Amino acid sequence: MRASILLLVITVAISSCVAKKVYNQIKYDEKSKANILYGYSNIEGLKKEPFNFWFDFEYDTYQPDMATLEQLNMEKLDEFEIFIVMGTWCSDSQREVPRFYKLMESIGYETGKFILINVDRTKLAEGTPTQKLKIERIPTFIFMREGKETGRIIESPGESLEKDMLKIIGI
Fold first, then answer.
1. pLDDT tens profile 120-151
2. 11 assigned to some structural domain
3. At 161, which CATH number?
C-alpha cells in the first residue's frame, strides 16, 4: 500500500513538472494594432475571429491541383514531420497557410500532425524551436524526415504548393 501511494506521489510530481504546450495564445502586435496568434497553434486557432476572415476565404476559394497531388506517395508523406512557421499579421501567411491546409485535407492527410508555430515580427516565438529553425521569411513550410530537413517552401511557392511539395517529398 505504501509503495502504491509513493508511486502515485512520484508520478504526480513528475507529471506536474513536465511543461505542456499551450496552443493559440494571443499577443498584441503594436505595429498592426491588433491581436496575433503567438507560439504553438492549430487550425482551431486560425478558424476563430479575427483570423477566420482571411483563413476561411483562402481555404474556401483555393482549388488544389489534384493531378499533381495524385502523384504523391502517401506512405512516403507519412515519413515526414511538417513544420509551418507563420505570422497571422503576414499577408503571405494569410494566403499560403489556408491553401496548404486545404490541399493536405483534400488528400486525406491529418492536419493535426503539423507543427504550426505563429511568430511575432522578430520571426521568433518563445518556447518553440523557431531560433533553431532559422526562420528568415514567413510562411516557411519545413519538411523533415528522421530529424533531418529535406526541404522548405519559403514565403510563396516557386511553382505551386503542390509541385514544390512533390519535389521535396519525391514520388
1. 999 999 999 999 999 999 999 999 999 999 99
2. no
3. 3.40.30.10
Tens-place pLDDT, residues 104-124: 999 999 888 999 999 999 999
| Residue-wise burial string across 95-133, b where 16 or more C-beta atoms lie within 10 A, e elsewhere | bbbbbbbbbbeeeebeeeebbbbbbbeebebeebebeeb
Distance CA 28, CA 54 (A): 18
35-49 pLDDT, tens digit each: 999 999 999 999 999
152, β-bridge pairs: 142
Q: Give the range of the structural domain holding residue 157, as residue numbers without chain letter.
A: 20-169
With beta carbons less than 8 A apart as the criterion, state whether 125 and 68 touch.
no
**Neighbour count for residue 56 (Cβ, 10 Å):** 13
Rg, Å, the chain Cα set:
18
Counted domains in the chain: 1
5 domain-assigned? no
Let me know if residue 15 belongs to a domain: no
Q: In this structure, are residues 44 and 51 in contact, taking their beta carbons and an 8 Å threshold?
A: no
Residue 138 in any domain: the answer is yes
pTM of the entire predicted model: 0.87
Is pLDDT of 9 > 60? no
